[in-house]
Amino acid sequence: MSVPMMMTDDVATALSDGRAVVALESTIITHGMPYPQNVETARAVEAEVRAAGATPATIAVIDGVLQIGLSPDRLDALGQANGVAKLSRADIAACIATGGTGATTVAATMIAAHLARIGVFATGGIGGVHRGAETSFDISADLHELAQTPVTVVAAGAKAILDLPKTFEVLETLGVPVIAYRQDHLPAFWSANSPLPAPLRMDSADDIAKAHRMRAEMGLPGGQLVTNPIPRDAQIPHETLAPLIDQALAEADTHGITAKEVTPFLLGRLFELTDGASLTANIALVLNNARLAAAIAVALSAQSDGSLG
Ligand code: PSU
Ligand code: MN
Known about the structure:
This protein is an alpha/beta fold.
């Protein structure tokens, strides 16, 4: 029994030629942004990766097949579909085995990228430790995935709806390198900066690629989290967002929102409470992450022969 996997021609060719490829997730399309901005953003992200000299591979499960790269038609259909499953480590195999369709979260996209031998992945913000996790125990599977699957993930930090100090504590405990790009503090998704000092800082894609390869050389499992600050002109000051995040969290509580629904609910409410400003910033940071991820993938293929070794 093998994994039913389909690769678009451009991704397959780039991989076999040892050229740069960047994995992209699909939960941000189905659960993170409204239609049509979700599809427009997904296309713009792919264009950004191409402009930076790499091939984009948007990942999803469609009718039981793991798709590595999505055709424009499939991307559009996924972006408009209702009730698509949100797949993580726990449910991706069951979805494929039963012929289902689902969007991949950071955790599931890392698993798929690694299966396809893609070493770099760009997203918006990773999942993490939710506020109140001491009673809800809600901690994203993204964190454990970073600890065990060797993919470098470029994100604007963890989403600021989370408990950021606890999220980074857990990453430290799990042995995940957290690298801030060109600054000393960790970014906070919609804001470029936070009071949290970054455990590691790197100023070039080349260094990030070297560190990725060194982990493989040393047999260290797991990936790296590269935290790339949102462009300064696109950020929303934390003071502006903080009360709105509190309001959205209180509403989630009142409505009894739990488990996988929490993050999509909070992002959706913030979109409404900010009159769309949270989405505009989210789009800017994803595009920025796509550019850096492409530069890292290009550096990785130049340093090695493109294989993960
Ligand atoms: N980045 C975004 N928006 C998103 C996500 C990332 O800008 O919606 C998705 C990712 O797929 C991530 C998921 O894995 O949110 C986290 O979900 P949870 O908190 O339920 O683990
Ligand atoms: Mn969760």
